[in-house]
């Protein structure tokens, strides 16, 4: 049986000011509005622990990523340990604890894409954007990640920019793709 609840005031206080086991105080940057948004998402799934993946999807959609502070609030609302939430976030490649760029670039490195040159396409994106895999540009516009398979093997190698799919990408086509989003 699930119930709707709001985060306890003592947890809100915890979220604003945390003292580690070493006695060092750390200020956590999670606004009351963000906590309320997380509460709203959790409540929409009846704070059911079995809906953790759905809650994480919705929350990541709202914030762009899932930092530790956000995971703490979700764990509290779903009556789970923070370790359980963290385990799911780190297990599934869809979830990110690092902010993604406004235009997240994902290069498929599954077997078909790899065999057809995905590694060279990835290297060209890294070179053009001067980023490593997992990084976000200083202006927040681009980030680069790799995926295992997007299910479009006939279009290999495949690149996604946000939700837009680019098929049969060659290293020569990378500049044009980036150019579409620099405007």
Topology overview:
Blueprint: H1 9-16, E1 17-19, E2 25-27, H2 32-44, H3 52-63, H4 68-78, H5 82-91, E3 103-108, H6 111-115, H7 118-129, E4 142-147, E5 159-161, E6 164-166, H8 174-182
Parallel strand pairs: 3-4
Antiparallel strand pairs: 1-2, 3-5, 5-6
Helix pairs in contact: 2-3, 2-4, 4-5
Commentary on this structure:
The protein contains 8 helices and 6 strands. The chain is of the alpha+beta class and 183 residues long. α4 (68-78) crosses α5. It is 44% helix and 13% strand. Residues 1-27 have low confidence and may be disordered.
N- to C-terminal distance? 51 Å
Question: How many strand segments?
Answer: 6
Q: What does the overall shape look like?
A: elongated
Q: From the alpha-carbon coordinates, what is the Rg to the nearest angstrom?
A: 19 Å
Strand order of the largest sheet: 4-3-5-6
Helix-strand pattern, N to C? Answer: HEEHHHHEHHEEEH
Which stretches are poorly predicted, pLDDT < 50 over at least 5 residues?
1-27
Count of distinct structural domains: 2
Q: Which band does the percent of strand residues land in?
A: 5-15%
Q: What does the main sheet amount to?
A: 4 strands, mixed
By helix and strand content, what is the structural category? alpha+beta
Rounded average pLDDT: 86
What's the helix count? Answer: 8
Helix content: 40-55%
């Amino acid at each position: 049986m699930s119930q709707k609840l709001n985060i306890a005031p003592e947890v809100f206080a915890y979220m604003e000011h945390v003292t580690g086991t070493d006695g060092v105080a750390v200020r956590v940057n999670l606004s009351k509005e963000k906590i309320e948004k997380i509460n709203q998402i959790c409540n929409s799934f009846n704070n059911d622990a079995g809906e953790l993946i759905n809650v994480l999807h919705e929350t990541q959609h709202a914030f762009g990523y899932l930092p530790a502070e956000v995971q703490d609030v979700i764990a509290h609302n779903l009556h789970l340990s923070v370790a359980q939430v963290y385990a799911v976030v780190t297990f599934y490649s869809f979830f990110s604890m690092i902010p993604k760029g406004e235009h997240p670039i994902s290069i498929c490195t599954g077997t078909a894409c790899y065999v057809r040159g995905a590694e060279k396409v990835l290297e060209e994106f890294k070179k053009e954007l001067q980023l490593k895999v997992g990084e976000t540009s200083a202006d927040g516009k681009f980030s680069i990640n790799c995926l295992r398979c997007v299910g479009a093997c006939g279009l290999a190698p495949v690149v996604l920019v946000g939700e837009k799919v680019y098929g049969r990408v060659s290293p020569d086509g990378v500049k044009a793709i980036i150019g579409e989003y620099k405007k």
